[in-house]
Automatic annotation (TrEMBL):
Keywords of this entry: Membrane, Transmembrane, Transmembrane helix
Domain DUF6533: 24-67
Membrane is among the record's keywords: yes
Organism this protein belongs to: Coprinopsis marcescibilis
Official protein name in the record: DUF6533 domain-containing protein
UniProt xrefs under InterPro entries: DUF6533 (IPR045340)
Pfam families: DUF6533
Bilayer-crossing regions: 58-78, 90-110, 122-141, 173-196, 208-229, 235-256
Keyword Membrane: yes
């Protein structure tokens, strides 16, 4: 009798946690839609009309992955599924969410490559770093998912897809390692970005430099903090609750990375307009650094940033 009561109590607790997780998933989907509606005009202006580039491709992939991830998450949260179908839906949701983070992180790696001045050595390192980190994360996620099982319930429409961990500790350890690896990778890339930024651009007074560096700092600090939070939540939080911040990290990565590009391109366009209004001649390979007050443009051209991150108007285009 006591065993049945404990199982019933566990079922009720799991149902409450599952409902909380479902509410978070819906809230994050609404947040993505709001962010899209707020920035779609900038996307049309600075992305759709820009020249084709790898940055543009990664932006669009990161931006629209939620069209796949969102329906899968809703399917997992609210559909009447068998235990096997729950595992399939959950696995697809996890892998699609990790893929969304992959595209967002790719933008940051391209950012570091740009700020390095398109160094071939740095390109090789970044490709190795990015590939190794992503392969490790997908492998750890697959191992974690292999330990997750879902129970059959007598009321599947009301209590659907409740997890039952066969190897609870091992599954959590693998999932925690995914976020720990993300945090470590973000710290390394952040330090590389800071080194190049201070070494190459500390004497450049352009507002673009300020935005480029400031947004990078905000992104890395926020995402590293969330990764560390996720790492500890997966170790110590209650079942199901430990997954809440995982989706939040994916959404935060997507919003911050895409807004960084839009804001930088908008600032780039503003500098171009200001420069043109002063009647300054266009830049050429042989021209001396042009200055507008404290704004100097040549360091950006030499850095490689002009070919990767700007507005697509011939100045800093992508």
């Amino acid at each position: 009798m006591d065993r049945l009561l404990r199982q019933f109590a566990t079922l009720i607790q799991g149902a409450h946690h599952k409902r909380a997780l479902d509410s978070v998933q819906v809230s994050l989907l609404v947040l993505l839609i709001i962010d899209y509606l707020q920035t779609v005009n900038l996307e049309v202006k600075y992305i759709w009309k820009a020249q084709r580039s790898f940055v543009r491709t990664m932006f669009l992939l990161a931006r629209y992955t939620f069209l796949v991830t969102g329906p899968i998450s809703i399917w997992f949260s609210f559909a009447k599924l068998s235990a096997k179908a729950c595992h399939t839906a959950f696995s697809l949701a996890c892998f699609s969410t990790l893929t969304m983070v992959l595209f967002a992180e790719a933008i940051l790696f391209i950012r570091v490559y740009a700020i390095s001045g398109r160094s071939k050595f740095m390109l090789g390192y970044l490709i190795f770093h990015f590939t190794a980190a992503q392969v490790a994360k997908y492998t750890l996620l697959a191992k974690s998912l292999s330990t997750v099982k879902f129970m059959e319930t007598v009321v599947p429409r009301a209590l659907n897809c409740l997890p039952e961990m066969e190897d609870f500790g091992g599954g959590r350890a693998y999932m925690s390692a995914v976020f720990g690896l993300s945090a470590a990778s973000e710290v390394v890339i952040f330090l590389i970005m800071c080194w190049f930024a201070l070494r190459k651009f500390r004497d450049c007074g352009s507002d673009l430099y300020t935005i480029f560096f400031r947004d990078g700092v905000v992104y890395f600090v926020c995402l590293t903090a969330i990764s560390i939070t996720n790492m500890f939540m997966n170790l110590f939080a209650a079942t199901i609750i430990n997954l809440m911040f995982a989706s939040f990290q994916a959404v935060a990565s997507l919003i911050l990375s895409t807004r960084m590009i839009l804001q930088l391109r908008q600032a780039s366009q503003m500098e171009v307009v200001i420069k043109g209004s002063k009647g300054l001649p266009p830049r050429s390979e042989e021209s001396a650094p042009q200055s507008l007050g404290s704004m100097r443009f040549m360091p950006w051209r030499k850095s490689g940033l002009d070919e990767s991150w700007g507005s697509g108007s011939g100045q800093l285009h992508a």
